[in-house]
């Protein structure tokens, strides 16, 4: 999961928003404006639907599927999808595709092994998210999970020496305060938060989501650090991550549920709704990685904030979730903090206009290239960052 510390603004080179210039009368700008709002809708639906659907299938009565097997299945589907995309890029030249993959995976094994660490953390994170959503209301999970912005920002400052604007620091404080208020509200109203206390444990869910946020922040920053200077295809990178993710997921599945799965089967408890969750997790992130090129950072902030609102409203109708004033205040602070953090940095006043313009253009291009690569790894996370 990655948080962009210095946000891009609408119309940056390569952002796909206004390629024909600032004038809104060009036909291209109209098309891209439409794609921009389509991207917003996709981001909101993917964000909200995955949380709600996981919560739904994990609280249904009857046989419950194994979360560890679902994580493995999602990894396998992502790897197969990326392999298909690479094959398409090679114009269905199987020999060339195999050669490029062997070169990237085997001959450049040191580069491949670097991805073992983030892949291990992402696999742990995906399993923790199932645990958290199984024990927390969907709205509470989505609000609390925004702490990943705080952890990623702090790891970026510590590991990458990135700087945050005053607005971003204020937004992080608001974010922490909002999550704290929500947790105080939930702690005082556990009966409303968790319907069946015999099968759901609020403390376990809270610990799982906090560890998930910490792992998300570290893995995203670590991955960005090793990604710099790499010219590998984003789809090859996804294959590398997916292979490690599948292997580690199988190991975790064997360790946690091995005996039961051997008895009941890998696909035990799978229903059409469970398959929808797995496909959403596997392809939703890839879809977001494609459409996000048309969305600037502010729009992504809007999407995350709006998805929290959608999740809360749907939780009221689907799960009988109770919203009071304290939760509303806390969630409102989180939504505002997410939007504030996504605002672009103000240009430095010490630089001359021409130098600032030149520096901004070059840094924007570099940022766009890096962001394009980073976004392709969004599938590893339940939420868009």
TrEMBL record:
Pfam families: Nuc_sug_transp. Residues 347-365 have a biased composition (Low complexity). Residues 1-25, 347-372 are annotated as: Disordered. The chain crosses the membrane at residues 37-54, 66-88, 167-184, 204-223, 235-255, 267-292, 299-319, 325-343. It comes from the Eukaryota. The keyword Transport applies. It is found in: Golgi apparatus membrane. Keywords: Membrane, Sugar transport, Transmembrane, Transmembrane helix, Transport. InterPro entries: EmrE-like, Nuc_sug_transpt. One of its GO terms (molecular function) is pyrimidine nucleotide-sugar transmembrane transporter activity. GO terms for cellular component: Golgi membrane. It is a multi-pass membrane protein. Belongs to the nucleotide-sugar transporter family. SLC35A subfamily. This is Solute carrier family 35 member 2. It comes from Amphilophus citrinellus (Midas cichlid).
